[in-house]
Write a structure and sequence with these properties.
With 136 residues, this protein is mostly helical. The chain has two domains: 67 residues, no CATH class; 57 residues, no CATH class. Helices cover 68% and strands 0% of the residues. It contains seven helices and no strands. α3 crosses α4. The protein is rod-shaped, with a radius of gyration of 27 Å. Pfam families: DUF3606. This is DUF3606 domain-containing protein. InterPro entries: DUF3606 (IPR022037).
């Protein structure tokens, strides 16, 4: 008898049965898709990637949402992020860290911070040139 091995056994309704996602049952696909707020196709792809455990699938979706939300966020604690954003803004890692400390982790705010700094630096340079010309 195969029923005791199947996640969707109608005879067994214990915790182990509820903790597994049976893709072969349309009502389960509908239930879990609604629960995780994803399409059935995304649910099936997640199960294929991490297994039938509902906890693992839920963790997978949480991680995906976290990554999507954090794309524009600069994580100073991650060396690869510091390298990426330093190169993107054409600044040293130290200047990037200073900017994040000043305006926060939003890449948009950091970009605006550097743009304002650049503008201020250009004004100072132009002022120095006019002062030198007057002295001559």
């Amino acid at each position: 008898m195969k029923d005791h091995l199947m996640a969707d056994s109608k005879k067994k309704r214990g915790a182990a049965d509820r903790a597994l996602i049976a893709l072969s049952e349309s009502y389960e696909v509908a239930y879990w898709s609604k629960k995780f707020k994803v399409t059935p196709a995304k649910l099936k792809a997640a199960v294929k990637k991490v297994g039938h455990s509902a906890k693992k699938v839920e963790a997978h979706f949480k991680e995906q949402r976290h990554k999507a939300a954090d794309r524009a966020r600069i994580a100073i604690s991650e060396p690869y992020e510091v390298r990426y954003w330093s190169k993107k803004f054409k600044v040293t890692p130290a200047r990037l860290k200073t900017a994040v400390a000043a305006v926060g982790h939003s890449s948009k705010k950091v970009e605006a911070y550097f743009a304002a700094k650049k503008k201020t630096a250009k004004k100072k340079k132009a002022a120095k040139k006019t002062v030198r010309r007057k002295k001559s």
